[in-house]
Each structure stands twice: as structure tokens, then as C-alpha cells.
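Fold it.
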Amino acid sequence: GSQALLETVIFRVVVPVALMAAILGIYQAVYDYLPFERAWFARMLVHNVRINGSEWRPMGFFSSSSEYTRYVAAAMMAPIAAFLARRPRASLVVVPVLLTAIFFAGIRGPLVGAAMTLMVLWAVLGRSLKTSAVRMVVSGVVIFGGMIWTLNHLDPADISSSPQLTSLIQHQIDGVGHIEDEHKSTGIGHVKAALSGVLWSLTAPWGHGLGSTNMAVARFGGAGADTEIDFADAFLSMGLVGGVIYLLFMGSVIRTAYRLWQQTRRPMFLVVISFMAAGFMRWLYGGEYACCALTFFCFGCLNRAAIENGIARLVPQTHQIGRPSRRPAQRGANQPAANPG
């Protein structure tokens, strides 16, 4: 799609949808699910939105709490990216609502991902790789240091008297404020799982099949595993070769997005970078359907922009479907030569 289409989709569709979902999610966190939501929830037995088997995590009108929070987090970063690119949007005013919804959801990943995205955005404002690296380190110390300090001095009872909401907030404080404690945070566990996924590919270089890392293995029987990180799952399911190919694809996307932004300084490319960073390591994660579709829509727009700006394509032109070749047709052996006379 064109940059105009990308801008329309993000700021006129994605952000408003995220705002409506956030408002409903905040209501669910403070009070409870609506009666029809609770009935659907109990029927579908979606266990992954529970905390300790008692409290319920909000999910807006999405199919899971993880999809809800990651979608809202990605949408929140779009107006922030536009502001940093010196093209502020009216949607910047909804950022506090979206941030509140993410914090009240009780899921640490999107909150940490939003902080890392802010680091990335501040870093790529630099004009060179060296400057970007320095900005990344400085912003990381400030953002994560400030966030951890704030959470460690926060009392959930000062925010709400609702037992459900205070439990959700305490879950955030324990996980983000004590990342080094494996009893309170799953951060170290995720790192270990990612490394295990890569190492397991050495014992099964051809992989265990695409269904081994999603619900198909439970539906049809068999042994499977899930690291909750897309590139590690790629090594598990597609083996060593498939995992390396996926890593090369990720590198190609990152390189193209960075080059487009540095070459053109167009705000929409910084917005795309914010989407990539907010969903990093979950670009192809199962169950977060809206997020994956949106991410790869952005990749398609990047590919078109790369062609228009003379930058290496994400996909070789010979592999693109539906795009006629711009090279002139070669004369076949049976075609008569033009009459020189």
C-alpha cells in the first residue's frame, strides 16, 4: 500500500479501535466483564487470561488479553512516533488512556515493549549508527531506570480499592519492578526459553513442523513446545535452516526500515518502526491475529517504499506476485528481426 493508505489505516482505524478497546478494557479491569462477555468466556475456556486462577485480565473486545494489550501498545506508539518526527497528531491526546489500559491489564510484556519502543524511536532520531547507539544506551538507562524506580515506590491501594484491580497492578509491579527475581518476574525465563528454542534446533535440524508450536499439536495430538518468541519458535518448528532464514528476514526488514527513515525522514516510516519495535519478537506469534496482520501490512508498505526510493527490496522482484516486470521483453528466437529498411 501507499504511504497515504498506511497513514489512513493507522490514524483513522487502528488508533480509534485501540481507544475503544482500551475504554472497555479499563472498565473490565476496574469492575468486571459484562454478563455476555463472562458467559462467552466461560464457554470458550480461555484460561490464559487468568492470574493465579482467580482474577481476570481485561481483553477489551479482542479474543485474548495478550492480543488486546499488544494491539493497544502498538497503537499508542504511533502518535508518539509522529510527535518525535515533528508531525504531531491530534491522536496524541489518547496516549494517557491507552497507557492506563496497558498498565491495568496486568501483562508485563507490552509495558516493557512500549518502553523499549520509546528507546528505539529516540535512538533512530540520530543521524548515524554511532549516534543512534549512544542515544539507545542513554535512553535505556533513563526510561527503564525511571520506570523501575516508579513502580517500586507505587502502592496499588493508592490507585484503587478494587481487589481485582489492585491485584493486576501488583502483578505489574512485581514483574517489571523486580525483573531479576525469577519468583516474581518471567523475564529471565523468557530469555532462557528463547535460547533453548535455538539450541533445540541443533538436535532437530529439520524442525518439528509448523504445527508443533501452536494449538494444532494439542488438537491433533503429539509433542510440541512454545517459547512465546517468534524467532525461537521458528527454530523449533522449521529447524536450524528455517530459523536462520527467519532471522535474515527480520534483519532485512529492520535494515530497510532504518534506511528509509534515515534517507527520507518521513514521519510515517518512524511510525512503522514504532510498530515493528512494539511487536518485536512477536511478529508471527500465534493468537495475536490483529497484531500480525497489521505488522505485515506495514511490511508491505515498506517494500513498496523501498522500491520507490531505490533501496533494496524486502522481497526480490522475481518473487513478487501480481507485479509485471519492468524490464523490456527479450526477442525470442522465433521473432523476426526488425526490417532495417
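The chain has 13 helices and two strands.
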